[in-house]
Specification:
The chain is α/β, with parallel strands linked by helices. It folds into three domains: 7-106, no CATH class; 114-128 and 214-343, HAD superfamily/HAD-like (Rossmann fold), CATH 3.40.50; 130-212, Orthogonal Bundle (DNA polymerase, domain 1). Helix content is 40%, strand content 12%. The protein is built from 15 helices and eleven strands. The strands form three sheets. A six-stranded parallel β-sheet has the order 8-7-6-9-10-11, with helices on both faces. Strands 2-3-4 form a three-stranded antiparallel β-sheet, covered by helices on one side. Strands 1-5 form a two-stranded antiparallel ribbon. The longest helix has 16 residues, at 76-91. The two termini are 37 Å apart. Residues 1-80, 82-90 and 97-108 have low confidence and may be disordered.
């Protein structure tokens, strides 16, 4: 049981000056608030007597009207009813009444979707189907030249060089290089395995740009459109800026900025990549949420202070692959981008 004044009776705000009640040894007052009135009670140091007031005097509560003409009066009966409850609570500290009252008066914690201002996205695998796209582009470029490869196996082998290639930068063995440059170096490692040693440089350069011509998973465009209504959106990918631009134009990704490895001069999951993205938007890491289908990416983002959301992407590397759920603690686990938008109340 507790006393909570009705917002309909108080209006949106009210100002109440302090009052002292000698019999109850309780002082009762309020301060201006946006909605309703926050009430508190404590024992005053002078036994509840106002200076110059006779002992036992009943003081009329004074209600000062706010400037807003829409505010209404707090009646003496309502005020005294609240004092009665608070007096009883003060006399019975173990009754739980004051605890309940305090809990009522506290402001509810902000919802997750209200505390996040920007969403950062992993791209390869999370947003675009790299496996099918690279296989398709390789076939388009190499088949007319007489090559008959297992195109999906070729795409898988190229992607398998992804982390080892970036590790050379992350460990400092080579200076930072854009992903296009690393993709080209990875391709050189594949050529003997797939019989591409005699392919000329112009064809190899065109093949490298296969990573610029990938298609989005079907749930991404509608989900991204909904998320854009409420949040700033940016890729935080290991892909370089020109690569991200071409993928955005191909798939109608309407970014507010393009961030990621090239901005930071390093590769995920190094902390600097996530922190640099937040700094670029003049935000704190905690104001940002990393969205990815890969738990190692989300683990790195969380370590840098970002919120995290996992999107399941089954079949990313073929049948039976992909993460059905996160392998690390996350703020949100979603089935699709549209499910993510639903969970973030967009």
């Amino acid at each position: 049981m507790g006393f909570a004044p009705s917002a309909s009776r108080l209006g949106r705000s009210a100002y109440i000056v302090p009052h002292f009640f000698p019999q109850s040894n309780v002082r009762f007052w309020s301060r201006p608030v946006t909605r309703g009135v926050a009430l508190r009670a404590r024992v005053p140091p002078n036994n509840g007597l106002q200076s110059g007031a006779p002992r036992g005097a009943r003081l009329k509560p004074e209600v000062r009207q706010p400037e807003d003409k829409m505010m209404t009066n707090l009646t003496r009966r309502t005020l005294l009813r609240g004092v009665t409850v608070l007096t009883a609570a003060a006399a019975l500290p173990r009754s739980g009444i004051m605890t309940s009252f305090t809990a009522w008066a506290q402001t509810a914690p902000a919802k997750l979707e209200d505390s996040v201002r920007a969403l950062f996205f992993d791209v390869f695998g999370t947003m675009v189907d790299w496996r099918t796209g690279v296989a398709r582009e390789a076939q388009t470029i190499l088949k007319p030249l007489g090559f008959a490869l297992d195109w999906l196996a070729f795409a898988d082998a190229w992607r398998a060089e992804y982390q080892p290639g970036m590790d050379e930068v992350r460990t400092g063995r080579i200076p930072f290089s854009k992903l296009d440059v690393l993709h080209r170096r990875m391709l050189d490692r594949l050529r003997p395995r797939f019989g591409l040693e005699k392919v000329d440089e112009k064809v190899l350069q065109e093949l490298t740009l296969a990573w610029h011509r990938l298609d989005a998973w079907k749930d991404v465009p509608p989900g991204l459109s909904r998320l854009r209504r409420r949040f700033l959106l940016a890729p935080v990918s290991n892909g370089n800026i020109s690569l991200m631009v071409e993928l955005a134009r191909r798939n109608d990704f309407r970014w507010d900025a393009i961030l990621g490895a090239e901005i930071a001069g390093d590769y995920k999951p190094k902390p600097r990549v996530y922190i640099a993205a937040a700094e670029a938007l003049s935000l704190k890491p905690g104001d940002c949420m990393m969205v990815a289908a890969h738990s190692d990416d989300l683990k790195g983002a969380a370590a840098a202070g970002l919120r995290t959301a996992h999107v399941a992407r089954l079949g990313e590397r073929g049948p039976g692959t992909g993460e059905a759920g996160p392998k690390v603690p996350v703020d949100i686990a979603a089935r699709t981008f549209e499910d993510l938008a639903e969970k973030l109340a967009t």
